[in-house]
Amino acid sequence: MQVAARTRIAFKRGIPDRVPIHCWLGLPLIRSLKPQHKSMLEMLQWWIDDPLGSIVKMQADFGLDPLMTTYSQHIGEVEIWPRMLIPRPLETDTWHETFYERARGEGWREHQHHIRTPAGDLDYSYRTEDGYGTASQDYMLKGDNPEAKLEALRYFPSAELYDMTILKGMVEKVGEKAWWLHHCPGPWDMAAQVRGIVNLSLDIYDRPQFVHALMRLCTDWLKVYYRRLGETGMHSISMNETWVGVGLAPKVYREFIQSYQAECIAAAHAAGYLVSLHNCGRGAQFLEDMIDTGPDALETITSKKTSGDFDLADVKQRVGSRICLFGGFNEHILKSDNPDDVRDEVKRCLDAAAEGGGYILRSTGQIFHSNPGMLEVMCQTAREYGRY
Is domain 3-88+146-385 given the CATH code 1.10.287.90 in the classification? Predict the structure, then answer.
């Protein structure tokens, strides 16, 4: 069974030949695996030019079912890779954006963006490491009067102007030999990118109408963008709602987030692909509310041992008949020297969630480090123990 066929069955809560095995390889691990003569930017271009011979092969060599994880822009968080994949105009009649490198050191750089619009100016900055966005430093809607800056943000270039040609070409090259999971913002995550999660969380209490206005703007923009992503033929998106997982109260989720997520997920389905709702933190208290928004899968089902509050067996019992479970494996186990630790973690996940199908074994976060041979142990155990 080809990789995409196996994962598609699981995404639709069916029973494939075995549990799919996907992982998200982090940059430190990828850096150790890539050809040493290639810079990180050259490596990303290599992925674009030859995905099957690069990132797909890299994963298959471990025994993984390869997962193509590409990115849309996450403003101030992931910038350079998305510009390579999905170019957008920096200048329109109403949006004039320039950026420059304002500081650098060994392996890192700081970048500053300035934007002019008919409703005023905006700016933001972020830090990259080896050409990859890693940390926002300040935000477009900074300060104590974000309502005024929101009017300028309304001139953000339309998703109709984005060029999907490069991403579509990659999707066509890969076909069914890997599962495509394109990482793009959800409405709450996009709002946090332009306002900052601390400010946005306080705004819920200080200026709730502003929060709804910002969420409406983000949702309306994303619905068009999600439609455009459908032109690429990708299998699925990971709708990134990382900042939902910071520990929000259920009533906050229901009032300020839930309905906007549901609109975006409906737009993605109308565009012809599947949706995995990404919450890599907390959310057990409003688990059913998240599932009510209509996603096909839930990721990353992170436990209290790291950054989350989910228990995989509990999630399976509560919502496993309604949604594919995509995650649960504690990747920190891969730093163990004992292969039995890895085998036990795989078996824990499969025992908790594999019965009846609709489960994909996946690390709950990026794998930054793994002791030699441990990823192979994970994959071999899953292939043997995860057969139906």
Answer: no
